[in-house]
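Q: Please design a sequence for this.
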């Protein structure tokens, strides 16, 4: 074998060794596949104590001309099924209160107008519950109706929440009622008969025309 062939063989072996070493280095530096992580519930933000947090809910009036949303007041019932203790919570839309391991938020409340056929009183409520692992989870978010509780039910083994009332008012007479200026009342007394024109007075002797007789 000539020197040239030996040099070529050595060069080929060196290149192959360098390529193999480079491949090993690249594989060693590549990150290991991440372990699969189970999805976890994001803990809901909750007040640190039994205080009420106020959230701006806006003050625009509803199209019916009723009480603005921010000025309404709702009463929400809370039941602990373990000890059968129930409480009444008075909240405005945008407020939340923590009771033990629960946080109740009121987003809105509504009731049908007096001139409507169907009567419903509803509240949009969100319920967060702290579990045994000290994590907060949203277990309910939706409308609850006083007259029809079966329309939406809080499905939780310990706590139950329901709507009791929503204090708001509506304009008298309906949404299309427009107050006008004050109207003067008409008199109920009969009208007196119209006066006739006075008859001319009879002429006096002094003013009578002279007679033609002599």
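A: Design:
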């Amino acid at each position: 074998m000539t020197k040239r062939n030996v040099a070529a063989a050595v060069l080929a072996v060196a290149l192959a060794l360098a390529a193999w070493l480079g491949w090993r280095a690249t594989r060693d530096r590549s990150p290991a596949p991440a372990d699969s992580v189970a999805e976890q519930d994001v803990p809901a933000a909750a007040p640190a104590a039994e205080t009420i947090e106020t959230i701006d809910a806006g003050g625009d009036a509803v199209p019916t001309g009723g009480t603005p949303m921010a000025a309404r007041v709702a009463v929400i019932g809370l039941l602990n099924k373990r000890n059968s203790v129930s409480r009444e919570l008075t909240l405005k839309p945008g407020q939340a209160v923590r009771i033990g391991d629960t946080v109740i938020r009121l987003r809105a409340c509504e009731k049908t107008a007096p001139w409507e056929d169907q009567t419903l009183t509803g509240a949009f409520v969100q319920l967060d519950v702290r579990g045994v692992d000290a994590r907060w989870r949203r277990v309910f978010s939706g409308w609850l109706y006083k007259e029809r509780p079966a329309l939406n039910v809080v499905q939780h083994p310990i706590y139950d929440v329901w709507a009791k009332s929503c204090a708001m008012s509506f304009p008298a007479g309906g949404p299309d009622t427009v107050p006008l200026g004050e109207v003067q009342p008409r008199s109920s007394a009969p009208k007196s008969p119209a006066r006739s024109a006075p008859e001319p007075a009879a002429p006096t002797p002094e003013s009578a025309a002279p007679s033609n007789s002599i």
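Q: Thanks. Anything notable?
A: The beta strands are 52-54, 73-80, 85-91, 95-99, 102-111, 121-130, 136-145, 159-167. Residues 28 and 108 are 58 Å apart (CA to CA).
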